[in-house]
Specification:
Largest interface: A-B, 70 and 70 residues
Number of strands of chain A: 21
Largest sheet of chain A: 5 strands, antiparallel
Structural class of chain A: alpha+beta
Oligomer: homodimer
CATH topology of the largest domain in chain A: Sulfite Oxidase, Chain A, domain 2
Order of helices and strands of chain A: HHEEHEEHEHEEHEEEEHEEEEEEEEEEHH
CATH class of the largest domain in chain A: Alpha Beta
CATH architecture of the largest domain in chain A: Alpha-Beta Complex
Shape of chain A: elongated
CATH superfamily of the largest domain in chain A: Oxidoreductase, molybdopterin-binding domain
Amino acid sequence: MFGPIPSTNPVLAGDDFKAWHNAIGGELTTAADDSWRTVLREKHPDMLHLLQFPYNGEPPKRLVTSKTITPNPLHFVRNHGGISIIDKDRRPMDESRFPRIEKTVTIQCSGTRRIEHIQLYGGQGDEVPQAPWAEGAISTARYVGISLKKVIKDCGGLLKPAKHLELYGAETYVKDLEVGNYVVSVPWSKVRANEVILAWEMNGEPLPKIHGYPLRVIVLGYIGARSVKWLYRIKAIENPSRAPVQAKEYLYFNQQVGKYNLCATDGIQIQEMPVSSAIMSPWTKQTVVHIGTIRCKGWAYSGGGRWPGRVELSADGGFTWYAVPPKKLSKKGRWTWRTWEYDLPCDVEGWIEIVCRCWDNSLNTQPLNVRAAWNWGLHVTSSAHRIKVYSVNKSRELTRKRLDKFEQLGISLAPLTHYDIVPGQTAEEYEQYWRDHDPRDVDD
Amino acid sequence: MFGPIPSTNPVLAGDDFKAWHNAIGGELTTAADDSWRTVLREKHPDMLHLLQFPYNGEPPKRLVTSKTITPNPLHFVRNHGGISIIDKDRRPMDESRFPRIEKTVTIQCSGTRRIEHIQLYGGQGDEVPQAPWAEGAISTARYVGISLKKVIKDCGGLLKPAKHLELYGAETYVKDLEVGNYVVSVPWSKVRANEVILAWEMNGEPLPKIHGYPLRVIVLGYIGARSVKWLYRIKAIENPSRAPVQAKEYLYFNQQVGKYNLCATDGIQIQEMPVSSAIMSPWTKQTVVHIGTIRCKGWAYSGGGRWPGRVELSADGGFTWYAVPPKKLSKKGRWTWRTWEYDLPCDVEGWIEIVCRCWDNSLNTQPLNVRAAWNWGLHVTSSAHRIKVYSVNKSRELTRKRLDKFEQLGISLAPLTHYDIVPGQTAEEYEQYWRDHDPRDVDD
């Protein structure tokens, strides 16, 4: 039915989701197939596919922060079902009646860097399609739309006791073997602040199909899960939505809530993401040949309208911190990340741990390790980002000489883990050492 | 040539070693085949095979410390070549001329727990047959033999300037594509202290072929690498052996010595192992259902004639330490490990980190993390042993109720990482919670 997987890199196929959609029938029979064709048409060929269906993908590390505005084909995608089939001739409303809003907005999935959660302990993440996101489930785009507040006012305003707005997407959502639409809610206070936009344009183009064409919600400073795509209905309600996306998923648990004592009400519904950051270059387990400083690149972000005030890097696992100079950070925006680069001083030869952390304008900062914020839901991995790098420091004489010798002999550097038979020390040098130094053992 | 691998569990085949031995020819043509047949005949069927040839194997975790004296079929094996073919009628000497020595001795490979070194950073360990030892490269046996000192005295004593004794094994040893015998040395001071034994009996039986029949060296309190098997020659020399096992391997480097700046003389030749310990039960990523204490088992050891004085356990990653009561430690011996068990208090639900460490009679203790002692040679992983365990605490009401419900419904516990569709909280309970509690968001 779905044909062979193309020569890209899907990690999880999503067979259960495909089978469920097929079983429901009707237009959903071809949902998985349609979805994958849209991926191939709309997304960059190098996207890292975490889940084929529902489609979940992020840009490869080298492209995550290569531009401060993410090109549409590289913007991460976190879908929960198929891509809705929309009748192009039915426009939802006459948007010209409302002031046009144009905003640059960073959207982050609360599963960003979930892979670190999974690597530490697992949880339920490695069996169900809780996509194993790396650092790329965050992207930035310029949206055009109108304020939801104005639309509601135009409809006559909100009646008491309504305090929340429930947003319905045409996307299917499966939870505990029950199927429904993708539904969440946002508080009226957020709408009233003009921080909820109904958008139809992304980086100067109509919304791509995969990103919610023709109309989606953009909730400024909230997790991506609230920015409903393929919006088809808005309902005023008294309490936060009881739909499963809001009530049973995207919850932030305490460390001691787990598989056998879990209650949804023990989780905080995730709305704003806390301050976080990530290193995009170099990458973990890479060998970096340098002469005393290592060029590092990455991003930093804080939810809720806060912005990165300072980014700090450490080459010694978080003992000593260097600040990225302000001019090496991209410019501030109320709803956007800042990308950065920095030449991190490093004298060490061998394995080091590079760490980055951010302080936002409210002076919030990140927990120092994954354990501190690990939770059964595998959401919000906002701890200081740590990567292991093998430092080869050519400013050290012995290292420089050895590498020069390799070059003379025409030997290219093998992967670090390959055994190397180029002799380091000659037999003469060995004997000379022991003539010049004390023996291993004491003599008494 | 070697036939199919039996239905056991070899991890690395050792194809290069097999090819080298085959290329040398003569008796070595069948060395790999002979070696594997000996494994099948002499070793326990559940041995964990780390390398098929040269044979490297350790007992499975549940059997490492099940007895304080390791049965011969379960004793770990670290061979470097084939098992020597010995003419049974040629006895090396008349041992009845010397006092008989009987000693219980723990032998530890300096690669014990190397897997933690490899998991942290890799190094060269994952490409060359540097066996990825876990915690089982340590075993204890009762040996019968004679003192090497007496033999040398009997031969007329040592002449100046000799200060070391070079020990030759019949085993082949390949280093940097050169082949030789397995050769190491021990200082005369160690021999003079009567701490080097020539042994022919192991746990009341003649030495198994795989353990050095008919004669091997046992160097008390030194790493296993010095206890040469299939001993055929002893030579008095002025300096430590220049043979590669002693001069180029079994070296303990500083963290900043690596692939491109390595000099053998920067490594300390490893003789005595430092104090270390390991947890054998429970095991990492296991789910442990308990009522407030977790039964833990393991070993502790210190080289050089020192012994474990105290073993401590932590259920919180090394913040709080409990001492194993002396009666729960096996008895002291100058050259032996101590096995232990302890019911570790644990109130926590969810992921915990159990850590153990030992203090020896000289009050030496272990570094607290692998990083602190990581070295390019991947030797001596003596840091406090850490395992991740998922604690299910039935002394907590909610957990007990949930598990009772599972039992009523006849649902057995799935692996932790499998998604669970048994509902935790009912819709009524959910609504009741929100009637009793403040809403998520503030209202202003």
